[in-house]
Amino acid sequence: MFAKVLIANRGEIALRVLRACRELGIRTAVVYSTADADSAAVRLADQAVLIGPAASRRSYLNAAAIVEAARLVGAEAVHPGYGFLSEDADFAEICADNGLTFIGPPPEVMSALADKSSARELMRRAGLPLPPGSVAPVPTAEQAARVAAEVGYPVIVKAAAGGGGRGMTVVHTPAELPRAYARTRAAAQVAFGDDRVYVERYLTDARHVEVQVLCDGHGNGVHLGTRDCSVQRRHQKLVEEAPAPALSAGALEAISACALRGALAVGFTGAGTVEFLVDAEERFHFLEINCRIQVEHPVTEMITGIDLVHEQLHIAAGVPLRWRQEEIVPHGVAIECRVNVEDPDRDFAPTPGRLERFLPPGGPFTRVDTHGRPGYLIGPHYDSLLAKVAVWAPDRELALNRLERALEEFDIAGPGIRTTIPFVRRVLDDAGFRKGRYTTGLVERLLAVPTDPPHRRTR
Ligand code: MV4
């Protein structure tokens, strides 16, 4: 195992990784920007290295500064967390060139999967079902129209270099296609420096189901079952649960087995997530593979009892996978919600500011991952995730009640600060959600229903 790991991230995930290292007897160093000088991770780490100003470009996205920090402290490995450089194949390569272990898959695997068109082709070859559409990028509007006519409308034009909901356009009619095609290409060129796009049938009102996998560098892999992440607003997940509800045992098993097959086929290593869309008939379609530890990983940890960050560290250190598939027996239900400092009444605009009160919930089977504390100043520079509240229970009904109970306890206050808690409570209250029958359309439907104006609300 590594003697020292550099944590190249901030916020709750920096703390999460730091704790895993501590538990494994690994010394920790964390990088930080001037905006994070008094963060919990900086206080708790064995060492902390200032790498730049608040702007991410010049700190958490600055590969050279991070590699230099690793050299300075003598770290052997870099844990990138999620976001920032976590899925940047060039960064993984730079780490390798500097004798550092990047905690994630090999750079070649990362770049093959970062290209969504290439990922689609690799998964097709591994036998995974895909949404109907083009496999290779579509070079002209005429060809896009031909593919669309073949698979039927609505279609979705996706940037090969996109992913996670970035760089995609839904097209409902043939008349809209030429402009949507041109617009998506132009936007992809600006956003990613790569204007290749492909065309798929747009699957409406499906469920977003993903599978957690762990693969070592010796050809072994296991899956840790499913998560439903259909509760999203503009591709930001708000509520996640494991296992995916209201699916037959057969469908869950088939999706999980496919995910693992796909990951092993491309030489994936580490902790990964294979995303699918599942329709009302339980047909599933591969979307993409994520190469990082995900925000919602705790729900999988809670139903399997496996610490995913421990496993990432062991795999990166070359240890053969420590679990056989038969040993992974999911138990009960876990649900997580994100507490973002955003105002649900103002289009989820961030509400940075100082936390005057911050008292997270506690109690049985209740896990809070947060970097918040009373007096903490939430700056405007980074994403607005302040906390994740995850609960476990033997059944889904109790898990929902437990999460509601936990959210009622959470006391967060400060000048101007609002959180996503009231909106998440509406989700938990929704009849369809309660039954486990919900799709990616749920959030939009809830947002279309007017709520009490803010001044009449008690919290
Ligand atoms: C789709 C889709 C429907 N049909 N592709 C979004 C994130 C990225 N992983 C892929 N995503 C989707 N791809 C086809 N062919 C639906 C989504 C999608 C989604 C779309 C609109 C609103 C919310 C969504 C949540 C998850 C996935």
TrEMBL record:
Keyword presence, Ligase: yes
InterPro entries: ACC_Biotin_Carboxylase (IPR051602), ATP-grasp (IPR011761), BC-like_N (IPR005481), Biotin_carboxylation_dom (IPR011764), Biotin_COase_C (IPR005482), CPAse_ATP-bd (IPR005479), PreATP-grasp_dom_sf (IPR016185), Rudment_hybrid_motif (IPR011054)
EC number from the UniProt entry: 6.3.4.14
Domain Biotin carboxylation: 1-448
One Gene Ontology MF term: ATP binding
Catalysed reactions, as listed in the record: N(6)-biotinyl-L-lysyl-[protein] + hydrogencarbonate + ATP = N(6)-carboxybiotinyl-L-lysyl-[protein] + ADP + phosphate + H(+)
Protein name (Swiss-Prot/TrEMBL): biotin carboxylase
Organism: Micromonospora endolithica
Function: This protein is a component of the acetyl coenzyme A carboxylase complex; first, biotin carboxylase catalyzes the carboxylation of the carrier protein and then the transcarboxylase transfers the carboxyl group to form malonyl-CoA.
Superkingdom of origin: Bacteria
Record keywords, A-Z: ATP-binding, Biotin, Ligase, Nucleotide-binding
NCBIfam families named in the record: PRK08591.1
Residues annotated as domain ATP-grasp: 120-317
Gene3D superfamilies assigned to the protein according to its UniProt record, in alphabetical order: ATP-grasp fold, B domain
Enzyme class: ligase
Coiled coil location: none
